[in-house]
Amino acid sequence: MTQTPILIVGGGLAGLFCALKLAPRRVRVLTPGSIDEGAASFWAQGGVAAAVLDTDSPERHAEDTLKAGAGIVDADVTLGMAREARARIEDLLSYGVPFDRADGKFTPSREAAHSERRIVRVKGDTAGRAIMETLVAAVRATPSIELLEGFSAQELLTHDGRVIGLRARGRDGLLRDFLSPATVLATGGIGHLYRVTTNPKEARGIGLAMAARAGALVADAEFVQFHPTAIDIGVDPAPLATESLRGEGAIIVDRAGHRFMAEIDPAAELAPRDIVARGVFASIAAGGGAFLDARATVGAEFPARFPTVYASCMAGGVDPVTAPIPIAPAAHYHMGGVATDARGRTSLAGLWAAGEVASTGVHGANRLASNSLLEAVVFAARIANDIGEQNIEAAPAPAPSPDAADAPEQSLVDELRDVMARDVGVIRDAIGLTRATRAILRIEAATANAQLRNMALTALLAASAALARRESRGAHFRSDFPRAEDALAHRSYMTMTQARAIAEGALR
Q: Does 288 share its domain with 346?
């Protein structure tokens, strides 16, 4: 057993930013892989949403976020986040992030559902990588931060209802307990539970499941955002065609060149992501296919302006300078997660959560583009401040749990991802969701592997919450309940026990 003052689980933007903000307090960061590549934050292309122009304001930013969130965004928390955005951008600048600027001023872009140009970028589509490379260098140079790479989280350790640390498996296959008076979950989202996703393998809901097993309250688990323009070239995970392309004028067409989104929503390609995703999904299902055409608006400048997208397309045999890019909706971001308050505290003492694993209330039913990186740094900073104000001590660890060291059965992992894509995807109904819960419970019962059981539990939380919400709102679309209901215009909350009760009730 190893004792440490503060434990951060996850090496993405939220985890590393929190660690830096906690300096010079001693921090230990546990990650399943290398912090140089493993986190989904590296893949973020758009940038950080922030009102940095004189024509914009935090109030307008918050208003756009409320509209995109389809009626269930926490207005107070969202306005607070928008007002802190500029300060967090300045923090990132101080670490050395090379945001795009001209004459010392930011040159932000516009993305879907934003009323202003407020996406602070790096070289068009490389913000995530640039931010992460900068923070990784800063973390490695900070003496108070100890990195432990290659440790896969298994379960949270609790004592008298308080989280006191984490049990994790190292690359050597051995389980180790890491005790801490303050544990911060920054483990990322759930996208890799789906067959088609833009997320890396690490984003499979482990942190959410661990918190739920420990008794934490989960919020908005039904709301999974599907990015409408994943590049459909048969790669897992699917590369992403950033929303900034549509902000710069790229259009979506079918195989015949018909611009179908203009008939679905007045904002066409710049409509909220859920609307665009369903439009793309419907065109593909009808046999028309879907393509992102940036030839007229970006054209020959593609390699310089959007190098990441260009490289992904060329690797898949598509030249976006001369041809439309084949696209498909892909699981991209989870608005739900471990419920937190405005300080990042969960319902369990000793446990905080930041980044995609958390549900703060700022995303509602449909995340506004590029608010994810902003939320990560704002709440990571708040958590660091909250922990820094406390004087708490760790309790003794409980007895070790049974050890199941085998790797997850790949056939069951594949089945789980197929089930989620088919029945808990872009369009849902009671029949499919019930079928999903039956399959998920069977998969969970069929394995003793901790990783797979955690994946199955997170899948069950999403499916059960989707069953319980009998309406369509934001990213959650029920074909059997296609309209939003005023009586359901609120966030959803549940525990693991309640999720199991919903699933079992549907199977009776």
A: no
- Which residues carry out catalysis? 273
Q: What is the model's pLDDT at position 441?
A: 98
Distance, in Å, from the CA atom of 505 to the CA atom of 508, rounded to the nearest integer, reads: 5
Tokens of 286: 């009808």
Which regions in the chain score pLDDT beneath 50? 1
Tens-place pLDDT, residues 389-445: 877 666 666 666 655 556 789 999 999 999 999 999 999 999 999 999 999 999 999
How far is residue 153 from each of residues 18, 27, 77, measured CA to CA in Å?
19, 17, 29
Indicate the residue among 329, 361, 377 that finishes a domain: 329
| Integer CA distances (angstroms), 423 to 371, 427, 463, in order | 27, 8, 8
What pLDDT, in 10s, does the model give residues 14-31?
999 999 999 999 999 999
Residue 230's H or E segment, with its range, is strand 224-231
- Residue 253, phi then psi, degrees to nearest 5: -130, 165
Q: Are residues 344 and 415 located together in one domain of the fold?
A: no
CATH number at residue 41: 3.50.50.60
Work out how many domains the chain is built from and give that number.
Answer: 3
User: Do 345 and 302 fall within a single domain?
Assistant: no
φ, ψ for residue 88, nearest 5 deg: -75, -35
- How far is CA 220 from its chain centroid? 13
- Provide the terminal-to-terminal Cα distance of the chain, rounded to the nearest Å: 45
Q: Do residues 339 and 216 make contact, with C-beta atoms less than 8 angstroms apart?
A: yes
Q: Is the same domain home to 93 and 142?
A: yes
Tell me the β-bridge partners of 7. 28, 183
Describe the crossing of helices 430-445 and 410-423 by its angle, rounded to 10 degrees: 170
Tell me how far apart the alpha carbons of residues 321 and 190 are, in angstroms, rounded to a whole number: 33
Asked, as a colleague might, if the bond just before 272 is cis with ω within 30 of 0, I would say no
Domain range spanning residue 314?
228-329
Q: Both 77 and 175 in a single domain?
A: yes
Q: Do residues 265 and 414 both lie within one domain?
A: no
Same domain for 260 and 203? no
Number of residues in the chain: 508
Residue type, 167: R
User: What b/e readout covers 150-187, taking b as 16+ CB neighbours within 10 angstroms?
Assistant: ebbbbbbbbeeebbbbbbbbeeeeebbbbbbbbbbbbb
CATH code at position 465: 1.20.58.100
Q: Are residues 444 and 429 in the same domain?
A: yes
Please, are residues 72 and 364 in contact by the beta-carbon 8 Å criterion? Answer: yes
